[in-house]
Amino acid sequence: MASSFARVLSSKRKVGILSLVGAGSLTVGFFLNREQHVNAGAHVRRIYPPSAEYPDLRKHNNCMASHLTPAVYAKLSDKTTPNGYTLDLAIQTGVDNPGHPFIKTVGMVAGDEESYEVFAGIFNPVIKERHNGYDPCTMNHPTDLDASKIRGGQFDDKYVLSSRVRTGRSIRGLSLPPACTRAERREVERVVIDALAGLKGDLAGKYFSLTLMTEQEQQQLIDDHFLFDKPVSPLLTCAGMARDWPDARGIWHNNEKTFLVWVNEEDHTRVISMEKGGNMKRVFERFCKGLQEVERLIQEKGWEFMWNEHLGYILTCPSNLGTGLRAGVHVTLPRLSKDPRFPKILDNLRLQKRGTGGVDTAAVGNTFDISNLDRLGQSEVQLVQTVIDGVNYLIECEKKLERGQDIKIPAPISQFK
Amino acid sequence: MPFGNTHNQLKMNYIAEQEYPDLSQHNNHMAKVLTLEMYANLRDKQTPSGFTVDDVIQTGVDNPGHPFIMTVGCVAGDEETYEVFKDLLDPIIEDRHGGYKPTDKHKTDLNPDNLQGGDDLDPNYVLSSRVRTGRSIRGFCLPPHCSRGERRAIEGLSVEALGALDGDLKGKYYALKDMTEEEQQQLIDDHFLFDKPVSPLLLASGMARDWPDGRGIWHNDNKTFLVWVNEEDHLRVISMQKGGNMKEVFTRFCTGLTKIEELFKEKGHEFMWNEHLGYVLTCPSNLGTGLRGGVHVKLPNLSKHEKFGEILKRLRLQKRGTGGVDTAAVGGIFDISNADRLGFSEVELVQMVVDGVKLLVEMEKRLEAGQSINDLMPEQK
């Protein structure tokens, strides 16, 4: 598939409509272009100046709202990607969801690969804020899926209950979930399951389409904690990702249930490698092997993943750019978690804690989900190493506290290596 | 997709079979009618403002429906939707509106003098009376498709028109986004405040975008005439009061609507209307009069009668709980209103409500006294 993102459509032709308003030219501060009626087939709608269309973001607290000034809006509002995706579409989720005073959401999505380029004027500052200063204009993102570089990675099973690595991949040339047509979404499904069918050995597996799955299959997938449901979060539904549900959505997993791919949920694909216990090294090895195999298989058919040297792997949400990688463990830290220094230790190790239900859940019984904070600006190997080193440190702290010894807050590790 | 036109160019890269939605699990009017062939014929069309067939049907694709409730599954993005996609919408309209044909003409009658009686519904039974409808401003896109600029323009024009009302219609506008806490509480206490839609039927069509921008509530000082701006339609107009004087409610309704229409015309705007579909609104179920006239009425005995459903059907009335559509009745109190919207005039529909409710109350009194109602059974209207 030849990439067409070089062809950036410049400003949409401004077309007015037949004068349906009376003789007065100014109504409540808005004006209408009164060019002649265009031929049938061209879309004609009332065009207002950007100042009349600019969203009211005064009560908003998300990254988009922080950076979308009227000037930026005016500059970008009449541009479209080659597929026709617009700025208004990209920011709709952020306009509809003002955010929480304490949680800063991103507030915008990409409809296709070209969105990041056409709307760089708003995406770049958002990316910079979300990814702690990463500048897409000047910095390059390293991709490294060579698992042999990992040192250690075998955690004490007494503390680490499970290990998991996830990321996403997008198929170049097809629109992303907020914008894709039904046919495009079905094409993503076809391309991906075709490739997954080529996996062999410990990666061999099966696809379960959401529309076709039987009751038993559904129950099994629920019991395995594999089944994903139609998004209910307004952050996602307002971006249009849940359209036509459950058409062309599905779950693939290997027979051993250690490698899992979600098709057409928030991204074209979400790829997950996981196991019970603390063998993060093996989880990451399988992760890399699986990803590289899938990439090879789609390339055989003339497809490739969306990727570039500044943004790494391109995904729907700017928060997942770069590696799109979240590597984490479920770990029991009964003493450390009660120590007031716990948050600072995590911070300095560039780790984040969540409850075991995932993002926004509370921890249950001293067991936490600990994973990397960063996504962009460091490679997969670097991020997983960070998690390994960090979790080892946490376990050491827990053991020290068990023995009645004191612990130390580690020096903050550097962010961009 | 609503509010953008990404799809049409992109979709044409694929053949109809590849884009045709999977409607095998669906039970709504759209799914009954939209064959692959029809989809193929309509998919390259768009209204002048860029609304496509996929925009029309998105809500119906996303909401398969309920086995027992037949939803419409379609919305209009502008006035021209009903013309450009008539192949899809005409059969839906016919099915939904009791056989209304593409060649039928709809009568509009907003002259309250033509209503017989209606001022004497027994207030011991009829607790409140209400008439509502919707209006769309010609030349603007409808809620599923309008841009923020358009929605604000609609709000501006509406506020201007409503601001010129006087006499017992004089009132005040409360923009949803500027409302104070006290104003909000008062509107809640008055049962006037509408909230951001939560129904997936509405959300999937794009009507809740940019909430609460451009939305608001206007009501007169007497709190008997209320207008919702930019909720499901450009305007929803409501006349209501306690008690059973439906005639007064309807008179204010007609006077208010007529006055508002005049005020819009003075500024060079008119309502979307044509002689086939009457008043044009977002949902095909609200075409024609868009009118629901009803009462909250106590019918504890009649509602338990085995023929209650049949009586309502013959009277062309529908029951709901007092919380509105899809709620259950509480304490024997029902919301009784006209079942029809299109093919009957406003006067005809309110007449049906007035005559019908009068009969229902009479039946209730008979049953209270332990008497039979068999001689009161109505014919099918």
TrEMBL record, chain A:
Query: What is the membrane topology listed in the Swiss-Prot or TrEMBL record?
Result: Peripheral membrane protein
- SUPFAM superfamilies registered for this protein in UniProt: Glutamine synthetase/guanido kinase, Guanido kinase N-terminal domain
What is one GO biological process annotated to this record? phosphocreatine biosynthetic process
Which organism's genome codes for this protein?
A: Sinocyclocheilus rhinocerous
Q: Where does ATP bind?
A: 162-166, 225, 270, 326-330, 354-359
Q: Which residues form a coiled coil?
A: none
- Please list the GO terms describing molecular function: ATP binding; creatine kinase activity
Which top EC class is given? transferase
Q: Sorted alphabetically, which keywords does the UniProt record give?
A: ATP-binding, Kinase, Membrane, Mitochondrion, Mitochondrion inner membrane, Nucleotide-binding, Transferase, Transit peptide
* Name used for this protein in its record: Creatine kinase U-type, mitochondrial
Judging by the UniProt lineage, the source's domain of life is: Eukaryota
What is its subcellular localisation?
Answer: Mitochondrion inner membrane
Q: What does this protein do?
A: Reversibly catalyzes the transfer of phosphate between ATP and various phosphogens (e.g. creatine phosphate). Creatine kinase isoenzymes play a central role in energy transduction in tissues with large, fluctuating energy demands, such as skeletal muscle, heart, brain and spermatozoa.
Q: What is its EC number?
A: 2.7.3.2
Which CDD domains does the UniProt entry name for this protein? Answer: creatine_kinase_like (cd00716)
Q: Name one Pfam family in it.
A: ATP-gua_Ptrans
Ranges where the Phosphagen kinase N-terminal domain occurs: 45-132
What are the annotated GO cellular component locations?
mitochondrial inner membrane
From TrEMBL, chain B:
**Where are the residues of the annotated region Disordered?**
97-122
Protein keywords = ATP-binding, Kinase, Nucleotide-binding, Transferase
**Reaction catalyzed:** creatine + ATP = N-phosphocreatine + ADP + H(+)
Q: Where is the composition biased (Basic and acidic residues)?
A: 97-110
Assigned EC number = 2.7.3.2
Q: Does the keyword ATP-binding apply?
A: yes
GO molecular function annotation: ATP binding; creatine kinase activity
Top EC class of this enzyme: transferase
PANTHER family in UniProt: ARGININE OR CREATINE KINASE, CREATINE KINASE B-TYPE
The family assignment reads: Belongs to the ATP:guanido phosphotransferase family.
What is the name of this protein?
creatine kinase
Gene of this entry: ckbb
